[in-house]
Amino acid sequence: MKNKVILLFLLMAGIMQAQEKKQNYSFSLQQAIAHALEHNYSAINANRDIEAAKQKKWETTTIGLPHLDGSVNYQNNFKIQQNQFTVNGVTNTLEFGNYNSMDAGLKLSQLIFDGSYLVGLQSAKTYLKISQNAKIKTNNELREIVVNSYGNVLLAQESVLILEKNKTILTKTLNDTREVFKNGLIEEENVEQLQLTLATVESSLEYSKRMKSIASNMLKLVLGIDLNEELILTDNLTALTQNNLDLAILKEEFSVENNIDYQIGKNVEESNRLLVKLEKSKALPTLGAAVNFGSNTFGSRFTMFNTDQKWFNYSNLGVGLNVPIFSSFGRSARTQQAKIALEQSKTQLIETEQKLKLQFEKAKSDYEYSLEQFATAKNNLSLAERIEGKQQIKFREGLSSSFDFTEAQQQLYSKQQDYLQSMVDVINKKATLEKILNKN
Protein backbone atom coordinates (compact mmCIF):
# COMPACT_ATOMS: atom_id res chain seq x y z
CA MET A 1 0.00 0.00 0.00
CA LYS A 2 2.86 2.32 0.90
CA ASN A 3 4.54 1.69 -2.49
CA LYS A 4 1.30 2.51 -4.31
CA VAL A 5 1.01 5.84 -2.48
CA ILE A 6 4.61 6.72 -3.37
CA LEU A 7 4.04 5.76 -7.02
CA LEU A 8 0.86 7.86 -7.17
CA PHE A 9 2.69 10.82 -5.64
CA LEU A 10 5.52 10.59 -8.19
CA LEU A 11 3.02 10.31 -11.02
CA MET A 12 1.13 13.41 -9.87
CA ALA A 13 4.40 15.31 -9.42
CA GLY A 14 5.42 14.40 -12.98
CA ILE A 15 2.09 15.61 -14.37
CA MET A 16 2.32 18.89 -12.44
CA GLN A 17 5.89 19.41 -13.64
CA ALA A 18 4.82 18.81 -17.27
CA GLN A 19 2.02 21.32 -16.86
CA GLU A 20 4.42 23.87 -15.44
CA LYS A 21 6.72 23.48 -18.43
CA LYS A 22 3.87 24.09 -20.86
CA GLN A 23 3.71 27.79 -21.66
CA ASN A 24 0.60 29.72 -22.59
CA TYR A 25 0.68 32.60 -25.07
CA SER A 26 -1.85 35.40 -25.41
CA PHE A 27 -1.45 37.87 -28.29
CA SER A 28 -3.19 40.72 -29.97
CA LEU A 29 -2.38 41.03 -33.67
CA GLN A 30 0.34 43.63 -33.06
CA GLN A 31 1.82 41.54 -30.25
CA ALA A 32 1.82 38.51 -32.52
CA ILE A 33 3.69 40.48 -35.21
CA ALA A 34 6.27 41.69 -32.67
CA HIS A 35 6.77 38.15 -31.38
CA ALA A 36 7.18 36.74 -34.90
CA LEU A 37 9.76 39.37 -35.85
CA GLU A 38 11.88 38.15 -32.96
CA HIS A 39 11.17 34.41 -32.80
CA ASN A 40 10.19 33.33 -36.31
CA TYR A 41 12.72 30.87 -37.73
CA SER A 42 13.32 32.85 -40.93
CA ALA A 43 13.68 36.09 -38.94
CA ILE A 44 16.27 34.47 -36.67
CA ASN A 45 18.33 33.29 -39.64
CA ALA A 46 18.00 36.71 -41.33
CA ASN A 47 19.61 38.25 -38.24
CA ARG A 48 22.37 35.67 -38.46
CA ASP A 49 22.92 36.58 -42.13
CA ILE A 50 23.49 40.20 -41.07
CA GLU A 51 25.97 39.13 -38.41
CA ALA A 52 27.76 36.91 -40.95
CA ALA A 53 27.91 39.86 -43.37
CA LYS A 54 29.48 42.04 -40.66
CA GLN A 55 32.11 39.38 -40.05
CA LYS A 56 32.72 39.12 -43.81
CA LYS A 57 33.19 42.88 -43.97
CA TRP A 58 35.78 42.74 -41.20
CA GLU A 59 37.49 39.76 -42.86
CA THR A 60 37.88 41.83 -46.04
CA THR A 61 39.15 44.83 -44.06
CA THR A 62 41.89 42.77 -42.40
CA ILE A 63 43.45 41.96 -45.79
CA GLY A 64 44.90 45.49 -45.87
CA LEU A 65 45.99 45.52 -42.23
CA PRO A 66 49.38 44.35 -40.91
CA HIS A 67 49.79 40.57 -40.57
CA LEU A 68 52.19 38.97 -38.12
CA ASP A 69 53.08 35.28 -38.52
CA GLY A 70 55.37 33.14 -36.40
CA SER A 71 57.09 29.93 -37.43
CA VAL A 72 59.21 27.24 -35.82
CA ASN A 73 60.87 24.58 -37.97
CA TYR A 74 62.95 21.61 -36.93
CA GLN A 75 64.79 19.32 -39.33
CA ASN A 76 66.55 16.03 -38.63
CA ASN A 77 68.93 14.91 -41.37
CA PHE A 78 69.25 11.22 -40.49
CA LYS A 79 71.16 10.75 -43.75
CA ILE A 80 73.32 13.77 -44.57
CA GLN A 81 73.90 14.68 -48.18
CA GLN A 82 77.45 13.92 -49.39
CA ASN A 83 79.62 15.22 -52.21
CA GLN A 84 82.94 14.17 -53.70
CA PHE A 85 85.99 16.21 -54.71
CA THR A 86 89.40 15.29 -56.05
CA VAL A 87 92.71 16.72 -54.77
CA ASN A 88 96.01 15.62 -56.35
CA GLY A 89 94.32 12.65 -57.94
CA VAL A 90 92.78 11.51 -54.67
CA THR A 91 88.98 11.45 -54.42
CA ASN A 92 87.51 12.43 -51.06
CA THR A 93 83.94 12.42 -49.74
CA LEU A 94 82.57 15.31 -47.69
CA GLU A 95 79.27 15.61 -45.85
CA PHE A 96 77.32 18.88 -46.14
CA GLY A 97 74.92 19.89 -43.36
CA ASN A 98 74.12 18.97 -39.77
CA TYR A 99 72.12 16.17 -38.31
CA ASN A 100 69.88 18.61 -36.39
CA SER A 101 68.77 22.15 -37.22
CA MET A 102 66.06 24.47 -35.93
CA ASP A 103 64.75 27.82 -37.09
CA ALA A 104 62.33 30.24 -35.34
CA GLY A 105 61.12 33.48 -36.89
CA LEU A 106 58.53 36.24 -37.12
CA LYS A 107 57.22 37.76 -40.35
CA LEU A 108 55.48 41.14 -40.43
CA SER A 109 53.78 41.80 -43.78
CA GLN A 110 51.79 44.78 -45.03
CA LEU A 111 49.81 45.29 -48.21
CA ILE A 112 50.72 48.73 -49.55
CA PHE A 113 48.55 48.94 -52.65
CA ASP A 114 46.10 46.60 -54.36
CA GLY A 115 43.22 47.94 -56.45
CA SER A 116 41.14 44.81 -55.92
CA TYR A 117 41.42 45.28 -52.16
CA LEU A 118 39.88 48.75 -52.37
CA VAL A 119 37.02 47.38 -54.47
CA GLY A 120 36.68 44.51 -52.00
CA LEU A 121 36.08 46.96 -49.16
CA GLN A 122 33.26 48.59 -51.14
CA SER A 123 31.82 45.17 -52.01
CA ALA A 124 31.82 44.12 -48.36
CA LYS A 125 29.75 47.21 -47.48
CA THR A 126 27.34 46.42 -50.30
CA TYR A 127 27.11 42.80 -49.16
CA LEU A 128 26.19 43.99 -45.67
CA LYS A 129 23.56 46.31 -47.13
CA ILE A 130 22.11 43.41 -49.13
CA SER A 131 21.79 41.33 -45.95
CA GLN A 132 20.16 44.21 -44.09
CA ASN A 133 17.66 44.76 -46.91
CA ALA A 134 16.97 41.02 -47.02
CA LYS A 135 16.11 41.26 -43.32
CA ILE A 136 13.71 44.13 -44.01
CA LYS A 137 12.08 42.12 -46.81
CA THR A 138 11.75 39.12 -44.48
CA ASN A 139 10.11 41.31 -41.84
CA ASN A 140 7.68 42.82 -44.36
CA GLU A 141 6.65 39.42 -45.66
CA LEU A 142 6.44 38.09 -42.12
CA ARG A 143 4.04 40.86 -41.09
CA GLU A 144 1.73 39.97 -43.97
CA ILE A 145 1.91 36.25 -43.17
CA VAL A 146 1.11 36.86 -39.49
CA VAL A 147 -1.86 39.05 -40.42
CA ASN A 148 -3.20 36.37 -42.78
CA SER A 149 -2.61 33.54 -40.30
CA TYR A 150 -4.10 35.50 -37.39
CA GLY A 151 -7.17 36.32 -39.51
CA ASN A 152 -7.58 32.68 -40.54
CA VAL A 153 -7.69 31.60 -36.90
CA LEU A 154 -10.29 34.26 -36.09
CA LEU A 155 -12.30 33.21 -39.16
CA ALA A 156 -12.28 29.59 -38.02
CA GLN A 157 -13.24 30.58 -34.48
CA GLU A 158 -16.16 32.71 -35.67
CA SER A 159 -17.28 29.98 -38.06
CA VAL A 160 -17.40 27.48 -35.20
CA LEU A 161 -19.42 29.88 -33.02
CA ILE A 162 -21.93 30.65 -35.77
CA LEU A 163 -22.33 27.00 -36.75
CA GLU A 164 -22.82 25.99 -33.13
CA LYS A 165 -25.50 28.67 -32.81
CA ASN A 166 -27.14 27.50 -36.05
CA LYS A 167 -27.04 23.92 -34.82
CA THR A 168 -28.72 24.85 -31.54
CA ILE A 169 -31.50 26.80 -33.26
CA LEU A 170 -31.97 24.13 -35.92
CA THR A 171 -32.09 21.32 -33.36
CA LYS A 172 -34.87 23.11 -31.45
CA THR A 173 -36.79 23.72 -34.67
CA LEU A 174 -36.44 20.05 -35.62
CA ASN A 175 -37.68 18.88 -32.22
CA ASP A 176 -40.66 21.23 -32.41
CA THR A 177 -41.43 20.04 -35.92
CA ARG A 178 -41.34 16.41 -34.79
CA GLU A 179 -43.92 17.16 -32.14
CA VAL A 180 -46.16 18.81 -34.73
CA PHE A 181 -45.71 15.80 -37.00
CA LYS A 182 -46.65 13.40 -34.20
CA ASN A 183 -49.89 15.29 -33.84
CA GLY A 184 -50.52 14.74 -37.55
CA LEU A 185 -50.55 18.41 -38.49
CA ILE A 186 -47.68 18.28 -41.03
CA GLU A 187 -46.15 15.76 -43.36
CA GLU A 188 -43.04 13.71 -42.51
CA GLU A 189 -41.17 15.35 -45.39
CA ASN A 190 -40.90 18.52 -43.30
CA VAL A 191 -39.06 16.61 -40.57
CA GLU A 192 -36.79 14.85 -43.05
CA GLN A 193 -35.91 18.11 -44.78
CA LEU A 194 -34.80 19.64 -41.46
CA GLN A 195 -32.81 16.48 -40.65
CA LEU A 196 -30.89 16.89 -43.89
CA THR A 197 -30.13 20.52 -43.09
CA LEU A 198 -29.03 19.65 -39.55
CA ALA A 199 -26.70 16.91 -40.84
CA THR A 200 -25.10 19.42 -43.22
CA VAL A 201 -24.62 21.97 -40.42
CA GLU A 202 -23.10 19.33 -38.12
CA SER A 203 -20.69 18.24 -40.86
CA SER A 204 -19.68 21.86 -41.50
CA LEU A 205 -19.20 22.39 -37.76
CA GLU A 206 -16.83 19.43 -37.43
CA TYR A 207 -14.87 20.61 -40.47
CA SER A 208 -14.60 24.13 -39.03
CA LYS A 209 -13.29 22.73 -35.75
CA ARG A 210 -10.57 20.84 -37.59
CA MET A 211 -9.72 23.94 -39.62
CA LYS A 212 -9.54 25.97 -36.42
CA SER A 213 -6.93 23.57 -35.04
CA ILE A 214 -4.94 23.60 -38.30
CA ALA A 215 -5.09 27.41 -38.58
CA SER A 216 -3.95 27.77 -34.99
CA ASN A 217 -0.97 25.45 -35.55
CA MET A 218 -0.01 27.31 -38.70
CA LEU A 219 0.00 30.57 -36.75
CA LYS A 220 2.13 28.96 -34.03
CA LEU A 221 4.62 27.87 -36.68
CA VAL A 222 4.84 31.42 -38.05
CA LEU A 223 5.27 32.82 -34.52
CA GLY A 224 8.03 30.34 -33.70
CA ILE A 225 5.96 28.70 -30.95
CA ASP A 226 5.94 24.98 -30.21
CA LEU A 227 2.79 23.37 -31.61
CA ASN A 228 1.99 21.85 -28.20
CA GLU A 229 1.78 25.27 -26.51
CA GLU A 230 -1.54 27.00 -25.93
CA LEU A 231 -2.25 30.11 -27.99
CA ILE A 232 -5.01 32.63 -27.22
CA LEU A 233 -5.90 35.50 -29.57
CA THR A 234 -7.14 38.62 -27.79
CA ASP A 235 -8.36 40.52 -30.87
CA ASN A 236 -11.75 39.69 -32.34
CA LEU A 237 -12.60 39.69 -36.02
CA THR A 238 -15.16 42.51 -35.90
CA ALA A 239 -12.92 44.98 -34.06
CA LEU A 240 -9.93 44.08 -36.22
CA THR A 241 -11.95 44.70 -39.36
CA GLN A 242 -13.09 48.10 -38.12
CA ASN A 243 -9.46 49.04 -37.38
CA ASN A 244 -8.54 48.19 -40.98
CA LEU A 245 -11.26 50.26 -42.65
CA ASP A 246 -8.89 52.97 -43.86
CA LEU A 247 -9.93 55.04 -46.87
CA ALA A 248 -6.99 57.41 -46.40
CA ILE A 249 -4.49 54.75 -47.46
CA LEU A 250 -6.13 54.66 -50.90
CA LYS A 251 -5.03 58.26 -51.47
CA GLU A 252 -1.36 57.71 -50.63
CA GLU A 253 1.18 58.17 -53.40
CA PHE A 254 3.39 55.24 -54.29
CA SER A 255 7.15 55.88 -54.27
CA VAL A 256 8.91 52.95 -55.88
CA GLU A 257 12.22 53.98 -54.28
CA ASN A 258 10.78 53.23 -50.84
CA ASN A 259 9.87 49.67 -51.75
CA ILE A 260 12.32 47.09 -50.43
CA ASP A 261 12.27 45.02 -53.64
CA TYR A 262 13.41 48.08 -55.60
CA GLN A 263 16.14 48.75 -53.03
CA ILE A 264 17.33 45.15 -53.32
CA GLY A 265 17.41 45.61 -57.10
CA LYS A 266 19.62 48.68 -56.59
CA ASN A 267 21.88 46.56 -54.38
CA VAL A 268 22.27 44.02 -57.18
CA GLU A 269 23.06 46.79 -59.66
CA GLU A 270 25.68 48.26 -57.32
CA SER A 271 27.17 44.82 -56.75
CA ASN A 272 27.58 44.30 -60.50
CA ARG A 273 29.03 47.80 -60.88
CA LEU A 274 31.66 46.91 -58.29
CA LEU A 275 32.35 43.66 -60.14
CA VAL A 276 33.27 45.73 -63.22
CA LYS A 277 35.60 47.85 -61.09
CA LEU A 278 37.14 44.69 -59.64
CA GLU A 279 37.96 43.25 -63.05
CA LYS A 280 39.46 46.59 -64.15
CA SER A 281 41.52 46.83 -60.95
CA LYS A 282 43.23 43.53 -61.75
CA ALA A 283 45.18 45.37 -64.46
CA LEU A 284 46.79 47.61 -61.81
CA PRO A 285 50.08 46.74 -60.08
CA THR A 286 50.13 45.44 -56.51
CA LEU A 287 52.73 46.44 -53.93
CA GLY A 288 53.53 44.79 -50.62
CA ALA A 289 56.31 44.68 -48.03
CA ALA A 290 57.48 42.20 -45.40
CA VAL A 291 60.00 42.25 -42.54
CA ASN A 292 61.47 38.98 -41.25
CA PHE A 293 63.17 38.42 -37.90
CA GLY A 294 64.55 35.03 -37.01
CA SER A 295 67.14 32.87 -35.34
CA ASN A 296 68.52 29.44 -36.16
CA THR A 297 70.77 26.84 -34.66
CA PHE A 298 72.21 23.45 -35.59
CA GLY A 299 74.33 20.63 -34.28
CA SER A 300 75.26 17.00 -34.65
CA ARG A 301 73.08 16.16 -31.61
CA PHE A 302 69.70 17.44 -30.47
CA THR A 303 70.79 20.14 -28.01
CA MET A 304 68.53 22.98 -29.19
CA PHE A 305 67.00 23.58 -25.77
CA ASN A 306 70.22 23.57 -23.80
CA THR A 307 71.10 26.87 -22.16
CA ASP A 308 74.56 26.93 -23.73
CA GLN A 309 73.23 26.27 -27.26
CA LYS A 310 74.28 29.06 -29.62
CA TRP A 311 71.60 30.71 -31.79
CA PHE A 312 72.30 32.91 -34.81
CA ASN A 313 70.02 35.86 -35.49
CA TYR A 314 69.03 37.15 -38.90
CA SER A 315 66.60 39.73 -40.33
CA ASN A 316 65.61 41.14 -43.68
CA LEU A 317 63.24 43.56 -45.38
CA GLY A 318 61.53 42.77 -48.64
CA VAL A 319 59.37 44.81 -50.98
CA GLY A 320 57.41 43.14 -53.79
CA LEU A 321 55.89 44.77 -56.86
CA ASN A 322 53.71 42.77 -59.24
CA VAL A 323 52.83 44.38 -62.57
CA PRO A 324 50.31 42.61 -64.87
CA ILE A 325 51.52 43.00 -68.45
CA PHE A 326 49.69 40.65 -70.80
CA SER A 327 46.94 38.08 -70.11
CA SER A 328 46.05 37.14 -73.69
CA PHE A 329 42.97 39.39 -73.32
CA GLY A 330 41.65 37.23 -70.47
CA ARG A 331 41.16 40.27 -68.22
CA SER A 332 39.38 42.08 -71.01
CA ALA A 333 36.97 39.16 -71.49
CA ARG A 334 36.18 39.04 -67.77
CA THR A 335 35.61 42.80 -67.74
CA GLN A 336 33.22 42.55 -70.67
CA GLN A 337 31.29 39.78 -68.91
CA ALA A 338 30.99 41.98 -65.82
CA LYS A 339 29.74 44.87 -67.95
CA ILE A 340 27.09 42.62 -69.50
CA ALA A 341 25.96 41.52 -66.03
CA LEU A 342 25.73 45.19 -65.03
CA GLU A 343 23.54 46.03 -68.03
CA GLN A 344 21.34 43.02 -67.23
CA SER A 345 20.86 44.23 -63.64
CA LYS A 346 19.90 47.69 -64.94
CA THR A 347 17.27 46.11 -67.19
CA GLN A 348 16.01 43.95 -64.32
CA LEU A 349 15.71 47.06 -62.15
CA ILE A 350 13.54 48.76 -64.77
CA GLU A 351 11.39 45.62 -64.95
CA THR A 352 11.13 45.54 -61.14
CA GLU A 353 10.03 49.17 -61.11
CA GLN A 354 7.26 48.50 -63.62
CA LYS A 355 6.12 45.36 -61.79
CA LEU A 356 5.96 47.21 -58.49
CA LYS A 357 3.82 49.94 -59.98
CA LEU A 358 1.48 47.29 -61.33
CA GLN A 359 1.43 45.45 -58.00
CA PHE A 360 0.57 48.69 -56.21
CA GLU A 361 -2.36 49.39 -58.52
CA LYS A 362 -3.63 45.83 -58.08
CA ALA A 363 -3.19 45.89 -54.28
CA LYS A 364 -4.98 49.24 -54.13
CA SER A 365 -7.82 47.95 -56.31
CA ASP A 366 -8.10 44.70 -54.31
CA TYR A 367 -8.31 46.59 -51.02
CA GLU A 368 -10.91 49.00 -52.40
CA TYR A 369 -12.92 46.04 -53.70
CA SER A 370 -12.67 44.28 -50.32
CA LEU A 371 -14.20 47.34 -48.65
CA GLU A 372 -17.08 47.29 -51.13
CA GLN A 373 -17.56 43.54 -50.66
CA PHE A 374 -17.58 43.94 -46.89
CA ALA A 375 -20.36 46.54 -47.08
CA THR A 376 -22.31 44.35 -49.52
CA ALA A 377 -21.83 41.19 -47.42
CA LYS A 378 -22.98 43.02 -44.31
CA ASN A 379 -26.18 44.20 -46.02
CA ASN A 380 -26.79 40.78 -47.57
CA LEU A 381 -26.42 39.10 -44.19
CA SER A 382 -28.99 41.46 -42.68
CA LEU A 383 -31.41 40.68 -45.53
CA ALA A 384 -30.82 36.93 -45.26
CA GLU A 385 -31.51 37.04 -41.52
CA ARG A 386 -34.82 38.83 -42.07
CA ILE A 387 -35.82 36.44 -44.86
CA GLU A 388 -34.95 33.39 -42.75
CA GLY A 389 -36.87 34.83 -39.78
CA LYS A 390 -39.98 35.41 -41.88
CA GLN A 391 -39.78 31.94 -43.42
CA GLN A 392 -39.40 30.41 -39.99
CA ILE A 393 -42.60 32.12 -38.79
CA LYS A 394 -44.47 31.04 -41.92
CA PHE A 395 -43.18 27.47 -41.53
CA ARG A 396 -44.33 27.23 -37.92
CA GLU A 397 -47.75 28.57 -38.87
CA GLY A 398 -48.01 26.19 -41.80
CA LEU A 399 -47.98 28.96 -44.41
CA SER A 400 -44.81 27.77 -46.21
CA SER A 401 -43.22 24.43 -47.04
CA SER A 402 -40.12 22.94 -45.46
CA PHE A 403 -38.37 23.40 -48.81
CA ASP A 404 -38.86 27.18 -48.73
CA PHE A 405 -37.72 27.32 -45.11
CA THR A 406 -34.66 25.17 -45.79
CA GLU A 407 -33.74 27.29 -48.79
CA ALA A 408 -33.88 30.41 -46.61
CA GLN A 409 -31.69 28.70 -44.01
CA GLN A 410 -29.10 27.66 -46.58
CA GLN A 411 -29.04 31.20 -47.92
CA LEU A 412 -28.49 32.56 -44.42
CA TYR A 413 -25.66 30.14 -43.72
CA SER A 414 -23.99 31.11 -47.00
CA LYS A 415 -24.27 34.82 -46.27
CA GLN A 416 -22.84 34.29 -42.78
CA GLN A 417 -19.71 32.74 -44.27
CA ASP A 418 -19.53 35.44 -46.96
CA TYR A 419 -19.63 38.09 -44.25
CA LEU A 420 -16.87 36.44 -42.22
CA GLN A 421 -14.71 36.01 -45.33
CA SER A 422 -15.27 39.65 -46.34
CA MET A 423 -13.92 40.79 -42.97
CA VAL A 424 -10.81 38.66 -43.35
CA ASP A 425 -10.33 39.95 -46.90
CA VAL A 426 -10.38 43.56 -45.66
CA ILE A 427 -7.63 42.74 -43.14
CA ASN A 428 -5.52 40.75 -45.60
CA LYS A 429 -5.83 43.12 -48.55
CA LYS A 430 -4.83 46.08 -46.43
CA ALA A 431 -1.77 44.14 -45.20
CA THR A 432 -0.75 43.50 -48.81
CA LEU A 433 -1.17 47.17 -49.70
CA GLU A 434 0.86 48.23 -46.66
CA LYS A 435 3.66 45.85 -47.68
CA ILE A 436 3.84 47.45 -51.14
CA LEU A 437 3.91 50.91 -49.57
CA ASN A 438 6.60 49.71 -47.12
CA LYS A 439 4.50 50.79 -44.14
CA ASN A 440 5.69 49.09 -40.96
What are the defining features of this structure?
single chain, elongated, Outer membrane efflux proteins (OEP), 440 residues, alpha+beta, two-stranded parallel ribbon
What would your notes on this structure say?
The chain has a single domain (39-74, 114-436), classed as Outer membrane efflux proteins (OEP) (Up-down Bundle). Strand 3 and strand 4 (90-95) form a beta hairpin. The strands form three sheets. It has a four-stranded antiparallel sheet with strand order 2-5-7-8, with no helix packed on it. Helix 2 (29-39) crosses helix 4, helix 3 packs antiparallel against helix 4 (115-182) and helix 8 runs antiparallel to helix 9 (402-436). The chain contains nine helices and eight strands. The chain has helices at residues 2-21, 29-39, 41-62, 115-182, 188-223, 237-243, 260-281, 330-396, 402-436; strands spanning 24-27, 67-76, 82-87, 90-95, 100-113, 230-233, 286-299, 312-322. The protein has 440 residues and is α+β, with helices and mostly antiparallel strands.
For the record, give the distance between the C-alpha atoms at the N and C termini, rounded to a whole number.
Answer: 64 Å
Radius of gyration: 40 Å
The CATH class name reads Mainly Alpha
- Biggest β-sheet, characterized? 4 strands, antiparallel
The CATH fourth-level homologous superfamily: Outer membrane efflux proteins (OEP)
Please sum up the structure shown.
This protein is of the alpha+beta class and 440 residues long.
Which secondary structure elements does this structure contain, and how are they paired or packed?
Blueprint: H1 2-21, E1 24-27, H2 29-39, H3 41-62, E2 67-76, E3 82-87, E4 90-95, E5 100-113, H4 115-182, H5 188-223, E6 230-233, H6 237-243, H7 260-281, E7 286-299, E8 312-322, H8 330-396, H9 402-436
Parallel strand pairs: 1-6
Antiparallel strand pairs: 2-5, 3-4, 5-7, 7-8
